[in-house]
């Protein structure tokens, strides 16, 4: 079982990811794809006159402040344009993919955080009206139902709160929770860089290997959204996933290359 998470930033080659995924699926591998959509969500939000607002927590993590209108734009892009675009690519490649959000069937479930602490101008403020959370439960029964019937699940945030409210969750950490719940052999976190870089954005400074017991000490090298990927990797290996690989989704055979050791391997 391999869980593949592909990001949503500029430069990602979804055609390459889907072609590689389809080829491996046809050999009998069990795969699940989780995707993001941040870059396109930002573009659409700007076009709709509701530009994105990003906040930085006191511990240094950056995330999207998700009020109700932002959540609706988020769903429109993640669950609509990006998800169905990936499903269509896979269908054209002969793979019977099913696209679902974490809200559907409560695939991803967690606690709704209505407020978030953010650092603004050096001061910590509490912002209310947020629709975010963290995945705490995964509906593995529904995933197994799809896989056993021959469908490839294509999953995306949002998740469901315990009250049934849609919540924005980090896709990398959701993929990590999924990999742990399914006892996956590997979790691939594919983005628009070759892996974790010691001196971002210098791609020659790629860190090739990280010991599983020492993942969090590498957070100092992670910039911006890569911090959540490293955190997700730590959660995955602590939960029993054998390998986590930060790989490059920009060209070639992204999944195969990552499984062959290209990128940053956490094990």
TrEMBL record:
**Site feature location: Transition state stabilizer:** 5, 229
- Which reaction is this enzyme known to catalyze? [amino-group carrier protein]-C-terminal-N-(1,4-dicarboxybutan-1-yl)-L-glutamine + ATP = [amino-group carrier protein]-C-terminal-N-(1-carboxy-5-phosphooxy-5-oxopentan-1-yl)-L-glutamine + ADP
Q: What does this protein do?
A: Catalyzes the phosphorylation of LysW-gamma-alpha-aminoadipate.
Q: Where does substrate bind?
A: 64, 168
Q: Which InterPro entries match?
A: AceGlu_kinase-like_sf (IPR036393), AcgluKinase_fam (IPR004662), Asp/Glu/Uridylate_kinase (IPR001048), Glu/AcGlu_kinase (IPR001057), LysZ (IPR037529)
User: What broad class describes the main subcellular location of this protein?
Assistant: cytoplasm
The record lists the organism as Deinococcus oregonensis
Tell me the protein family, please. Belongs to the acetylglutamate kinase family. LysZ subfamily.
* Intracellular or extracellular location(s): Cytoplasm
Query: What is the designated name of this protein?
Result: [LysW]-aminoadipate kinase
Instruction: Specify the pathway.
Output: Amino-acid biosynthesis; L-lysine biosynthesis via AAA pathway; L-lysine from L-alpha-aminoadipate (Thermus route): step 2/5
Cite the HAMAP family for this sequence: LysZ
Please name the Gene3D superfamilies in this protein's record: Acetylglutamate kinase-like (3.40.1160.10)
Q: Which UniProt keywords apply?
A: Amino-acid biosynthesis, ATP-binding, Cytoplasm, Kinase, Lysine biosynthesis, Nucleotide-binding, Transferase
- List the molecular function annotations (GO) for this entry: kinase activity
The UniProt record lists the EC number as 2.7.2.17
Aspartate/glutamate/uridylate kinase domain location is: 1-246
Q: Which CDD domains match?
A: AAK_NAGK-UC
């Amino acid at each position: 079982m391999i869980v593949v998470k592909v990001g949503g930033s500029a430069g990602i080659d979804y055609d390459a990811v889907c072609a590689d995924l389809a080829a491996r699926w046809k050999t009998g591998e069990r795969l699940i794809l989780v995707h993001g959509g941040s870059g396109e969500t930002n573009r659409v939000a700007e076009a709709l006159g509701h530009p994105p607002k990003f906040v930085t927590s006191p511990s240094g993590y950056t995330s999207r402040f998700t009020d109700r209108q932002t959540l609706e734009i988020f769903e429109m892009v993640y669950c609509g344009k990006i998800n169905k675009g990936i499903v269509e690519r896979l269908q054209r490649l002969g793979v019977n993919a099913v696209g679902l959000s974490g809200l559907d069937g409560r695939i991803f479930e967690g606690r709704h955080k209505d407020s978030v602490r953010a650092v603004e101008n050096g001061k910590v403020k509490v912002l209310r009206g947020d629709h975010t959370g963290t995945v705490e439960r995964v509906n593995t029964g529904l995933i197994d139902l799809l896989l056993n019937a021959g469908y490839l699940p294509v999953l995306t945030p949002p998740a469901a709160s315990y009250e049934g409210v849609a919540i924005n969750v980090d896709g990398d950490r959701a993929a990590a929770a999924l990999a742990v719940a399914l006892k996956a052999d590997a979790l691939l976190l594919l983005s628009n860089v070759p892996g974790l870089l010691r001196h971002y954005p210098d791609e020659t400074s790629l860190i090739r290997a990280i010991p599983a017991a020492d993942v969090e000490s590498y957070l100092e090298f992670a910039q911006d959204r890569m911090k959540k990927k490293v955190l997700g990797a730590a959660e995955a290996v602590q939960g029993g996933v054998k390998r986590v690989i930060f790989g490059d989704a920009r060209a070639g055979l992204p999944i195969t290359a990552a499984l062959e050791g290209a990128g940053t391997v956490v094990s």
